[in-house]
Design goal:
The structure holds two protein chains of two kinds.
Chain A: H1 2-26, E1 49-50, E2 69-74, H2 79-94, E3 98-104, H3 108-118, E4 124-128, H4 132-136, E5 144-148, E6 154-159, H5 164-175
Chain B: H1 2-30, H2 33-62, H3 69-74, H4 81-86, H5 92-113, H6 119-143, H7 167-196, H8 201-232, H9 243-268, H10 272-295, H11 308-332, H12 347-379, H13 387-405, H14 418-424, H15 426-443, H16 448-474, H17 482-506, E1 509-515, E2 520-523, E3 526-537, E4 541-552, E5 555-560, E6 563-567, E7 572-576, E8 578-581, E9 585-595, E10 599-608, H18 611-628, H19 631-635, H20 640-652
Antiparallel strand pairs in B: 1-10, 2-3, 3-4, 4-5, 4-6, 6-7, 8-9, 9-10
Classes of the chains: A alpha/beta, B alpha+beta.
């Protein structure tokens, strides 16, 4: 009888593997996504010099106002940032979203010129010239966008440019307090 | 019109495959010779129909018929003819059609060359082959029709993925598929044997040529893919442990194990159920590779072919073929009685060790490839498993495999003694140790492990050739049978690959420099001067080409002209590396980003022994083909077994 079980082993291994494959396919998993450890946790420290002269620096207090905020890391040298920029403009003007923009590894003059050309959707803007804040926030590149709720907890983390779908399906419900 | 003709032939082929997959099976179980013979006719008809379909699609590509959606998506009128043709299989639908074509051709080959097989076995093999064909043809027709029309036809197509517009890659998929699909024949033989309830020496002799053929093609296909990655990705490496590379390596390892275990079944009537399992696994792993590449379950360089919706179909098909095969195996294999008894220390024992190690290697690769998927699903953690894992697991398991490889041919069947065998190998051992010491002290002392691996490579070559020489002396300089000549070539070729891998992987050096025209750089004993960077206009791309004058001690040596091509239709960049080789080392240059004001990024590599990797792989395949040309294999089993086959098969039902 034991010998028979041995002959069933290959079949059992296959069943196990196929189960995982089916799970992966049905869950709509994106293998290219590298995920984020920040989601569900307290947002990292925010301590960034201001981008626009004469404004106060960005601090943690901005993340604990009781109202949801969007934190977006961008750079003037980054093409995908250009692609997602109109979405932020729309979120700021039409939805009145509070968006914190951080120019990552970007000379303030370049970032300001870029915002002047395209329009500035950021209520608060910081300059992370040496990329230190990016390190704190676990950035893998720009653009990346974090949704932080009024208590300072990160709820979503987007790597890469936002899409129309992200805005309608995730960001708008988030701003309305659905999650 | 031609596209409809192709579509129609494909539908007919499906109908024929359905007949071929059912009636001969009924015939085999009833002993009805007419139904069994139907299999041969159907196999030839099916092959003809799929050839017509494939020719129709090729015609649409060559003539740039942009009313066919597949041509629009993957071709462009400005493309060179070679890439119009290779574009046929450079996409999902077309490559599936190529699968179906090769599958049907193998079926026809069994029908033609299998005249010596017992009727019931041949009928069953052809039927199983056809059932696999049904899966692929239905997949094509219902989810991935290559003949779909668009109306109105656009003025021009989107062009082929630029990475695929390369002579190396034009032939990589067909060779790889010849290997993958070749294992479908061994699979069909295994299932047929389980249905018959009989595995014997004759069966092993019939399976062996098919396994060998598939193995040779797979070896060439993998080598070509690796060569392509070497010169087009521009990273200087030849193997990246990408999921897709792993997917092709696993069936290769299982197929190599099968080649060896089938010998034990043939000569000694032992290891039967194990050999049948390997035959099922070799093809299952080929299908698994296809699934992993196309379903989007893992990321890889082949992501262009991914579509989760198709993933479900391929998974279902994989479950049907592999699950069906393994279920039948679990049910029938315990009845297979092994005959030959042997001591652990014997030729049989050595081949079992070979099988254990090869299967461990395959399992290691499988685990490393799927681990990120398992971990992500179970815990949500993202990891990537890369070279460090495989270097720490795969490479050490190769050591005992290579050590034993040279000893095995000296061991006799049933029982053997180790000391006489080792005495024969003392020269090879001494040479290998000297080679390792020389490598560590004189060539490159950076890595002791590399020097050790170098010693192993030399051991494989000298050990295999030494065995061959001693055999020649023993038989009075009579050339041994081709099967054993092939073994010597293939075993020595492994050594050549190992030397190439050590040289390229451990002893290479690289230099990255930003250079403007007129700048000079010294590297690995060569002086490089960037003469100029100019713009070129290709048939369907624009390129920047750098001209690097290479000189040694002031004397001009060669000119390297790496290019960076931008394909205008797809707006994608592809690096064309420039390689100067003298078969002992490669001088390798790539051109990176840059502009006149700041200079261009130039990367230079010096890769010792790099060409040996592909030379060795080609040599291994040559060894396989030499073995395949052995008269004994060509003729197949003695005629007598044909008569004996039928009554016994019926008794087994």
């Amino acid at each position: 009888m034991n010998r028979r079980l041995l002959f069933l082993l290959p079949l059992a291994t296959l069943a196990l593997m196929a189960g995982f494959f089916a799970w992966s396919l049905l869950a709509g998993r994106d293998p290219a996504s590298i995920g984020s450890v920040l989601v569900g946790r307290e947002a990292p420290r925010l301590d960034v010099k201001p981008l626009r002269e004469g404004e106060p620096p960005l601090t943690d207090a901005l993340l604990h106002t009781g109202k949801p905020v969007i934190v977006n890391f961008f750079a003037s040298w980054c093409t995908p940032c250009l692609a997602e920029h109109p979405l932020f403009t729309r979120l700021a003007t039409r939805e009145g979203a509070v968006i914190i923009g951080v120019a990552w590894k970007n000379k303030p003059a370049d970032a300001l010129a870029w915002l002047k050309r395209l329009g500035d959707p950021y209520k608060f803007a910081g300059a992370d010239l040496d990329g230190r804040a990016g390190l704190d926030w676990g950035l893998s590149g720009v653009p990346e966008t974090y949704l932080v709720d009024g208590q300072g907890i990160v709820r979503r983390h987007f790597r890469g440019p936002l899409t129309e779908r992200d805005v309608t399906e995730t960001i708008l419900p988030f701003l309305k307090g659905a999650k | 019109m031609v596209a409809e003709l192709g579509h129609f032939s494909l539908i007919l082929a499906l109908a024929v495959a359905l007949v071929q997959g059912t009636l001969p099976l009924v015939g085999a179980s009833r002993g009805d010779i007419r139904l069994m013979d139907l299999g041969r006719t159907a196999a030839l008809t099916q092959a003809l129909l799929v050839i017509v379909a494939f020719a129709a699609l090729t015609q649409a590509y060559v003539a740039s018929d942009f009313s066919v959606a597949n041509v629009v998506a993957n071709s462009h009128s400005a493309k060179p003819l070679l890439y119009k043709i290779s574009g046929v299989w450079g996409n999902h639908e077309g490559s599936m059609l190529l699968w179906a074509l090769i599958l049907a051709l193998f079926g026809a080959a069994v029908a033609v060359f299998g005249a010596g097989l017992p009727d019931s076995l041949r009928a069953r093999v052809l039927a199983i082959q056809a059932l696999i064909g049904v899966g692929f043809l239905a997949f094509l027709l219902f989810t991935s029709n290559p003949f779909e029309r668009v109306w109105p036809p656009p003025a021009d197509g989107n062009g082929l993925n630029p990475l695929l517009q390369d002579p190396g890659l034009a032939f990589h998929p067909p060779l790889l598929y010849l290997g993958y699909v070749g294992f479908s024949v061994t699979y069909a033989f295994a299932i047929a044997a389980l249905l018959e309830g009989r595995v014997d020496a004759a069966w092993a002799r019939w399976v062996r040529p098919w396994t060998l053929a598939a193995w040779c093609f797979l070896t060439l296909g993998i080598a070509l893919g690796s060569w392509w990655a070497y010169y087009i990705l521009g990273w200087g490496g030849f193997w990246f442990w990408d999921p897709v590379e792993n997917a092709s390596l696993m069936p290769w390892l299982a197929g190599t194990a099968l080649l060896h275990s089938a010998i034990v079944v043939e000569k000694r009537d032992a290891l039967k159920s194990w050999t049948v399992l390997l035959a099922i696994l070799a093809f299952s792993l080929s299908l698994l590779g296809t699934f992993l590449v196309r379903s989007g379950v893992l990321t890889s360089v082949h992501a262009f072919a991914q579509d989760p919706a198709r993933g479900m179909y391929i998974l279902g098909f994989l479950l049907f073929v592999t699950g069906g095969g393994l279920a039948l195996y679990a049910w029938r294999a315990p009845q297979l009685q092994g005959g030959g008894l042997f001591q652990p220390l014997s030729r049989e024992g050595a081949l079992i060790l070979n099988n254990l190690l090869l299967c461990t290697l395959a399992a290691t690769v499988l685990l490393g490839t799927l681990y990120p998927l398992f971990l992500d699903l179970l815990t949500g953690n993202k990891v990537s498993v890369g070279p460090p894992f495989f270097n720490a697991t795969f490479v050490p398991i190769c050591a005992p495999l290579f050590a034993a490889l040279c000893v095995g041919p000296y061991l006799g069947w049933k029982r053997a003694e180790i000391w006489p065998a080792l005495r024969h190998l003392r020269v090879a051992f001494v040479v290998a140790v000297i080679a390792a010491i020389v490598a560590a002290t004189a060539i490159d002392g950076r890595s002791t492990l590399a020097a050790l691996a170098f010693g192993f490579g030399v051991w494989l070559i000298v050990g295999s050739l030494g065995e061959f020489a001693q055999r020649l002396v023993r038989t009075g300089y009579k050339l041994p049978p081709r099967a054993s000549l092939g073994m010597t070539i293939a075993h020595a070729a492994m050594g050549v690959v190992v030397l190439g891998a050590v040289g390229t992987g451990a002893w290479n050096s690289e230099l990255i420099r930003t250079m403007k025209p007129g700048d000079r750089a010294s590297f690995a004993g060569f002086d490089f001067k960037l003469d100029r960077v100019e713009n070129l206009q290709g048939p369907n791309y624009v390129a920047e080409r750098a001209t690097l004058a290479v000189s040694v001690a002031g004397k001009p040596y060669t000119i390297l002209s790496p290019e960076r091509r931008v394909f205008t239709v797809q707006r994608r960049q592809v690096a064309e590396t420039a390689i100067h080789t003298n078969l002992l080392r490669d001088l390798y240059a790539t051109l990176g980003e840059g502009e006149a004001a700041n200079g261009w990024v130039i990367r230079l590599y010096y890769n010792p022994l790099a060409p040996w990797i592909w030379l060795g792989a080609a040599l291994a395949a040559l060894g396989g083909f030499v073995s395949l040309s052995d008269r004994r294999l060509r003729i197949g089993a003695p005629r007598g077994s044909k008569k004996a086959g039928r009554p016994m098969a019926q008794a087994a039902e």
